[in-house]
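seq as requested:
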Amino acid sequence: MSETCNQDCSSCGLDCPSRQTEPESLLAPLNPRSSVKKVVAVMSGKGGVGKSLVTSLLACESARRGYRTGILDGDITGPSIPACFGLHGQVDSDGEILFPMRSKTGVDVMSINLLLGDERAPVLWRGPVIGGVIRQFWSDVLWDDIDFLFVDLPPGTADAQITLLQSLPIAGIVVVTSPQELVGMIVAKAVGMAKAMDVPLIGLVENMSWIECPDCGKRIALFGESRLQETALEYDTKILAQLPLDPAVAAAVDRGEIESVSGERVKTAMDVIARLLKEEKA
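struct tokens:
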């Protein structure tokens, strides 16, 4: 700092050390016993479009390919990931660290519902408390040699989402949408948030794109014709997958058997994710 410094950097052209200081990182520390290679966030601008379903399907497909896979359920007030996998009860701890619950196919899951005594009890917490729990799910949980950690973000673009995107080293975001015209505006908010937070957008997954007639097999655009192509072009991003509204999938989720659902429709999405993040196995 110059001896004549008046503390007003805006009027000074000197390149002194005080102006070269790197901003303090907001990333939460990963537990020394953990190892996570890539973190992929799954988000939506609004609720009810199937974000948790897409997160679960991607994790299942990742595990099928032999990747060590985990899911951090960041939707603290609406935690549905454990139910998708049929996981109930409470996770174990050694007094220093929490151990995620492992699904039938080896997906490690951490969710607030795996800490509560009653999984149906509402979580009546304010934003700062929720943010603290999200950071703890990263720092105080044993993520053991994880190749892909999928993070199910809560819907919207508020405090909890900001905390997650700032606290975790997100390698990329998958945005989940649906065909309704209104959703275009919601996608814009999600994409805008990703850009504002300087997190790469991997691509879009459209859920509930159509329903198949059980008699003739015709595809019916129940929620209107898709505008996904236009949206992808507008934001210069990829279409990762389009998923139908499938009663069989809904029934499997209700039974806690998401791992029994064929991953055919998310294979392309996982191809893109693995290739972009350069983790595809030889």
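The chain has one domain: 29-276.
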